[in-house]
Amino acid sequence: MFKTTKRNWKRLGLTAGLGLGVTLIAAGCGATEDTASMEDTVGKGQEIELAYVEWDDAVATNHVVAKVLEDLGYDVTLTPLDNAIMWEAVSTGEADAMLSAWLPGTHGAQMEEYGDKMVDLGGNLEGAKIGLAVPAYMDVDSIADLTDQAGKSITGIEPGAGIVAAAERALAEYPNLSDWSIETSSSGAMTVTLGQAIENEEDIIITAWNPHWKFSAYDLKYLDDPNGTFGGEETVHTMVREGLETDMPEAYQVLDQFQWTIEDVEALMLQIYEGESAEDAAEAFVEANPDLVAEWTAGVAE
């Protein structure tokens, strides 16, 4: 059963007006029944909190992991946060884990600032990538070849995101982009703008990354990056708070063993984009992939 509540994150520097939503994932129907049933599970009703940024890949990933932990008997809270606050929350123990650390490049600054205050469990997804992308119908293949397309504007996501910082470096490093600008908004707004541009076959340059459903929904191409401003392929890491292994060793083990592929996450992301709730899509994925779930829970749920 899924419930919604809110949590006060003011001590992490957020104002109450942000009203960040929190999704609670709880097993059973009634409180008494929940408590009784969880006593016989691995998790025994222990509370665990996963922090994430509301990027489509992070939504999919965290709901799948939350479902697996829920099935083991944990009381799981999903907390959407700004990227910088997500890192801070895990480093201070305000949240137990996050599964969205893009390394070594995209979140390199956050890793340098917070990495020694948390535990790096290694990669949960290989082959991640960031860069500038355009619809395939645009007659440009390299960042170095951009001239006046899309009104000399790049459509970005949230200010402060690693990919936006990389795009800002590109404006400084590529002479042909010296008078270009980046229009920041949000991940959702960027994809809406992308869809509208493609529907009208207009020019658009976006800050892009994969895994993302947009590469399944639209015919897109990355622009070559001869200066290497956006770096190469990256790995998405799982980071947990210090002490989690002692406090919840089985949950720690599941988080440590969680790995999947770009094909897995993009298929799930597309389902969510097409209207299925993240909870339902995650539940269906878990039910349809028992062998994969068995790998994640090996030594925990035998």
From TrEMBL:
Keywords: Cell membrane, Membrane, Signal, Transport. It is found in: Cell membrane. Residues 47-287 form the ABC-type glycine betaine transport system substrate-binding domain. GO terms for cellular component: ATP-binding cassette (ABC) transporter complex. SUPFAM superfamilies: Periplasmic binding protein-like II (SSF53850). Residues 1-26 form the signal peptide. It comes from the Bacteria. Pfam families: OpuAC (PF04069). GO terms for molecular function: amine transmembrane transporter activity; carnitine transmembrane transporter activity. Coiled coil: none annotated. GO terms for biological process: choline transport; glycine betaine transport. Gene3D superfamilies: Dipeptide-binding Protein, Domain 3, Glycine betaine-binding periplasmic protein, domain 2. This is ABC-type glycine betaine transport system substrate-binding domain-containing protein. It comes from Trichococcus pasteurii.
